[in-house]
Amino acid sequence: KRLKTDYVDLAPQFSSLKKGEDLEQTFITLKYQGVNLLICRSPLEKISSRVKIPNVAYINGGDGKNEHPTQALLDAFSILESGLDLSKTTIALIGDVLHSRVAHSLMKLIPELGGKILICGPSDWLPKGDLGPSIESVSSLEEAISRADILYPLRIQKERHKNTVQNEDYFIKHFKVSLKKLKEMDKKPLIFHAGPFNIGVEIDQDLLDSPLFKAYNQIENSIYIRMSIIQLMLQASRQS
Length: 240
Known about the structure:
Layout: H1 23-32, E1 37-42, H2 47-50, E2 57-63, H3 69-81, E3 90-95, H4 101-112, E4 116-120, E5 135-137, H5 141-147, E6 150-154, H6 168-175, H7 179-185, E7 190-191, H8 205-208, H9 215-239
Parallel strand pairs: 1-2, 3-4, 3-6, 4-5, 6-7
Helix pairs in contact: 3-4, 3-9
C-alpha cells in the first residue's frame, strides 16, 4: 500500500485451492489476472522448486521450516543500523534452531556477510552435520552469552514439530534469556527476536523493557526493507 500498488490478499481457505486446484495452477491463474509479483507464505517447503512459478516476480515470505529470507535481510540491516560491523559480529541463535526458518536463512546470510553464528539449544533442536566454518554449536546458554555480540532467542516452533517435543520446563530452565542472567554474567549483548514473543519461555519481560532489546527496531525496519525488496523485484522483472 505504501508503494501505491494494488494488491490481492489471497486466503487459501476461500480460494480455488479449497476446491482442489493445485498451487501451480493458482499461480498461473493469478498471472493471467494481471499479477506482477507473487509473495507466498506457506507451511509447504521449497515451493519454488516443487511447482513451476509463472513468469512473474516471486518472493518467499516463509516456507515451512525451510527459510524466511526477507526476515534475514531485515535482521542484517538492523544489525548494521545498530552500529555493529557484520564482519566482526557473532550472533547466537538460541532455542529451536532446527525448526526455525528464520534461523536457517540467517545461517546462510550472515556467514556470507562475514559474520559468525553460534547455535545453542536442546540437542534434538539443533541441526547436525557440517554447518561450515562460520557456524558452531555450543553446549550451554552461558557459553553463548559469553561469546556473542547478539543473542537471538527463538520461540519453540510447536506447529512444525512432529515427534521431537522437548519438555518446555527443561527449555525454560536451561535456555530462557533474561536480563537477570545477563547481569549475573556482566554481559550486555544486543537482543534480537523475530517475534512473536513467548514471554517467560524463550525470553523474559525484563529484557523487552531493556535498551538492549532491538526487536522493535526490527519490526520498524521490516516495512522499509520489504518495500525495497518489492520495488527491486518489480524493477528487475520489467527489465527482463
